[in-house]
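Minutes, project check-in
Item: structure for the 802-residue chain
Input as provided by the requester:
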Amino acid sequence: MTYRTLLFAAASVATLWTSGAVAAPAAKPAVEVDELVVTGTRTVGRSRLETLAPVDVVSAQALQQRGTTELATALATSIPSINFPRPSNTDGTDAVRPATLRGQGPDQTLVLVNGTRRHATALVNTNGSVGRGSAAVDLNAIPSTAIDRIEVLRDGASAQYGSDAIAGVINLRLREADHGGGLSVTSGEYMTRLHGFYGRKENVTDGQTTTVSGWQGLSLLGDGFLTLSAEYRTRDHTNRSDIDPRFGKVTSRFGDADVDDLSFYANAGKPLNDTWDAYGWYGYQKRDASSAATYRTPTDATQNIISVYPDGYLPLIKTKTEDNSAGIGLKGELGGFKTDVNLVYGKNQIDFNVDHTLNPSLGPTSPHSFYAGELTYDQLVFGSDFSREFDVGLVKPLNVAFGLEARKETYKIGAGEPGSYIRGPFTTLALGSRGFTGFTPSNVIDKDRSAVGVYLDVEGNLTEKLSASAAVRYEDYSDFGNNTTGKISGRYDFTPAFAVRGSVSTGFRAPALQQQYYTSTSILYINGVPFETGTYPSVSPVGKALGGKALQPETSDNYALGFVFRKGAFELTVDGYEIKVKDRIVLSETLTGSATAAVGTNARTIYDLLSPYGASAARFFINGVDTDTVGVDIVAHYRIQDEQAGTFDLTAAGNINNLDVTKTPTTAATILPTPVSLFARQAVLRFEKGAPRQKLTLQGDWSREAWGATVRSTFYGDVLAPGTLADGSADYHTGVRGLVDVEARYTFPIGVTASIGADNLFDTYANQVIPALDTTGAAPYSSFTPFGFGGRYVYGRLSYKW
């Protein structure tokens, strides 16, 4: 253990020291042009360090110089304020995992592709992991090979871009090339050592992953471009479950799912004349995933039929996801205004299947696999943006931008086959497919809504040193009404080396159709009478009976203040922020009724309220949670170019984030005799402590002629996985951890680059869940662990560019 600690400390200290060091006399700073950004500003020509709000730029090269080929994972290791945990045993969320920015919800960060709104996934997370209750964008549906760069605006931007931009904006800029190309093959696997409480002590090799990706730039009719990108990835599952002490062997599966996905993107642009260009793109991904549910024991009298599964069984939840996106547009000049008009469509569909299972109520002849239904979400967006620079008094220039966005969204739930949800003749046994009960005919919905938004955005230099911007946006939705947001930003450059910047803004997030209408129920029999239990829309008869109301938008107040310092090849940005969110939309606690409870008790009252609708227990989405987040982002970068030693790019980046829940909803006194919390202790702690409060990344990139290397150290603060007991005795802490990733590269004379590396080189794990909280060995680590629980991942990559 000592040699690992010493090596880890040496790598980290060396990287930290060089990130802030002054170059030796022989070192020469590299001459580098700052990246020009388009996110967070509609003024042309602002660089990353000249913006009025913090913007990170992550290049395609940076995304590829690591073991993972998942876009969300690579982005989270590049930007400390982004977190991407890897939950397991959370149904569809095992395959569609959400990312978070600055500790906010996954659906409180707006995702753009080429500056246009990206559609969300059809899946709503109803399990107890990070992002519970949200329906977010699936970043992993976009292959990294199709991306030129990613711009991350770390500032509230609803007044500029509309709903969802409470925490910030992630803008994925697609690759634009009319020639050249590249091909890459990456293959790796976990090589780890397990030390389970219940006796699993072995070297494990699993999670074998192979990714083949490539892109090709083509000339389009002479002066245009067509860039084609494709990626195929196959990944075997991992398993970190311990030995089950009841049976003396491993019976569960806890880890990454089996995944096969195929992605394709085409991005094109063509000048029509000296003024106008046409552009467009199309993207497609098909993903098949298989994750495990909870193990059913041989002696489970309600969920197993021993003649069918004498050794018990482990149901497998299989999701088939198809994701489509397409956009077309024209940009040019109209009446002196730079004009961009576009139409974008996106669709996400998830089909659920359950394998290696049964519907016990059907008896021994039950099928072993079922189709359990589907979720579909699509979105059509029309956008028009206009901007022009004016000389107004001392403001030269003043950039005036305005525009309109019209959007239509549709959400559908399709029923599974009858065997996945019906109750068969064996009435004492559980009904529906075990592991994932199918959607019933009563769950089927087909809902849509429309929204129209208009905005005005002005930005300019008030003096030689002072620049400012102001934006206002009005949106009207067909379901809940309208909302107006505003933003004021400013920046003062005291010297060419030092500037202060800040902003004040209001924001909002419209309730998602998935939150408004998601329904999933199963049937329970009480004294021979069927009763439903599950998740209901808040405005359904069941939801209304328990006090449910139509969902309203979340609103926010955002405050930011920071500074920029740059001198030669060194740059430093520090940005503090506060995000106050009101009426956050959350999934309520489950309210359960009982026909045998005493009259006047909550359980009996719930039963009396729900029984006319054939229900006995329910949860639904509600407004009413307020949060206050305070934090700071720090990013330092230094480049050294030495004729003999080569080029060193050194980065230290950190995020400190503290979120407090300041208000929670309760049932009304008119509903239950004794009001109860609809967002109780466990849910509150998931918000407050489910992500690390501190995250620090130290990275050094070196290159010299044909050689190159990367060393990255990432430190994660402690995360709490709250238990169900009110005294906290069932809570679990992941602990403070540091991970080291390394990669070495060599480019052969023929142009092929060979890379080898290891993510989590020293095989670091979070604290194990103690036996008292994991009596079966099924889940020895928490799904809240911010870096997952796979262990050391070793990989190799061959790439070629032409």
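Outcome recorded: The CA atoms of residues 384 and 669 lie 48 Å apart.
No further action items on this chain.
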